[in-house]
Amino acid sequence: MVPPRSPTTPWALTALLAVAACAPEDSPRDIPPITWSGDFLDYAPQDGAYEPCAGTLPYMDRYVSLVASTMGVPIEEPLVYVHGSEGEETFCPHEDTLGCAFDDSVYSLVVPQEHELVHGVRGRLGFSHLFFEEGTAEVFGDDAPFSLRVTSNGDLLEGIESANGQDGLPTSWYPRAGHFVAFLHDRHGPQVTEALLRRTDAFSSAAEAIAVLEEAAGEGFDEIRQEYEGLEECDQRHYRYPLYGCDEPTALRARCDGSEAITIEERIACDDPSTIGPRDGEIWKSIGIEVPEDGEYTFVSYTDESALGDSILVEECSMRCDSIVSEQPMGFVIPQVPVFLRAGRYSLRLTRPKDAAGSVQLLVVGADCS
Predict the structure, then answer these.
(1) Mean pLDDT of residues grouped by 10 in the chain (370 residues)?
(2) How far is CA 18 from the centre of its chain?
(3) Rounded distance between C-alpha atoms, residue 61 and residue 41, angstroms
């Protein structure tokens, strides 16, 4: 579950509250009519829910599939996504909470909300111990700038012990949970958190979760903890894995044709079939590029419709704190400062204000092509 918002601030500028990944099963849930269906997701908006951009629902449908593949969760029937509205009753136990997940559906006041999509997929197997449940949703979920997403901090064992099925995981522990789960995936592989998902639940004790962790990782907790505590601390922007841009095959764009750089042309507009949002006043699309070797690369972009807040965010497909993250305005900038990139795949998020549709032409120039 994501934290609540103040009634006077945007959803990304939220207050902190201890919340759980899933709401009690006896919470009243009157699922609205389904108005759109994909292969893996059904969309059910409440009366008054705002209209998503054309690419949002196909994106969420594909995101469910990518999460399921990453988590080793079978999707036998679509996940129901209830898009809430201010005028209707919330599904969540706390009225001022943005979203929550159940074993068959998710609820959110915004679209998309990838954090809850991760929970919704995992809910098919009953969720996991909530420290690892919320940590996984932080690694593979959205990147909205919540005030809770600070540099990871706090004692690991204390954080694991702070989670319980009644009160959830206090949001002050989300940074530590996400940072630790990123470490587990990076160093020990997804089989560790998959084992935690299949063999623990929201009411499992810390000792039970640690026992599963030790068996799946093939190491004692003290050894795992010693290796982990030698790592750099960082915030979610660096350890988060941008799943769609990194793992979706159709997101990949060619950079070069031989030694010549190819112009990547994208239109970001709510009626565009691959534009996502609106959320927090923004619309965007995510694409991917491959970088063949370490080196300096220059992002040269041009747009006829520049607007305050448009940007190109470059994120390395990595879960480590030294992940390369670079952001620059969309449009021609002087001087053009090259960015050092390691070999590998990168996710590019192309963002514009929701009321300022526009197109961008982008060249990514490096030693391999110019």
Answers:
(1) 39 31 56 98 98 98 98 96 95 87 94 97 96 98 91 98 94 98 96 96 97 97 97 97 98 97 97 97 97 97 92 98 96 90 98 96 95
(2) 20
(3) 5
Token output for 282: 């923004």
Pairing verdict, β 79-83 and 105-108: parallel
- C-beta of residue 223 within 8 angstroms of C-beta of residue 229: no
Tell me the β-bridge partners of 310.
Answer: none
* Strand intervals (E) in the chain: 2-4, 36-37, 41-45, 79-83, 97-101, 105-108, 256-257, 260-261, 264-268, 276-279, 282-291, 295-302, 311-316, 325-329, 339-341, 344-353, 358-365
358 forms bridges with which residues in the sheet? 268
The sheet carrying 339-341 orders its strands as 264-268, 358-365, 295-302, 339-341
For 69-99, letters b (16+ CB in 10 Å) and e give ebbebebeebbbbbbbeeeeebbbebeebbb
In angstroms, what CA-CA distances link 158 with 197, 251, 302? 20, 40, 49
The three-point CA angle 329-332-333 to 5° equals 70
How far the first Cα of the chain sits from its last, in Å, is: 45
Which backbone phi and psi does 43 adopt, to 5 degrees? -105, 125
Place of tokens 């990949």: 252
Strand partners, 41: 79
> If you ran DSSP here, which 8-state letter would residue 226 be given?
H
Query: How does DSSP classify residue 172?
Result: G
Phi, psi of 238 (to 5 degrees): -95, -40
Report the distance separating Cα 158 and Cα 148, nearest Å.
18
What pTM does this model have?
0.93
C-alpha to C-alpha distance for 265 and 259, rounded to whole angstroms: 19
Name, in order, each residue with C-beta under 8 angstroms of 188's C-beta and a sequence gap of 6 or more. 216, 217, 224
The answer to whether residues 346 and 316 touch, using CB atoms and an 8 Å cutoff, is yes
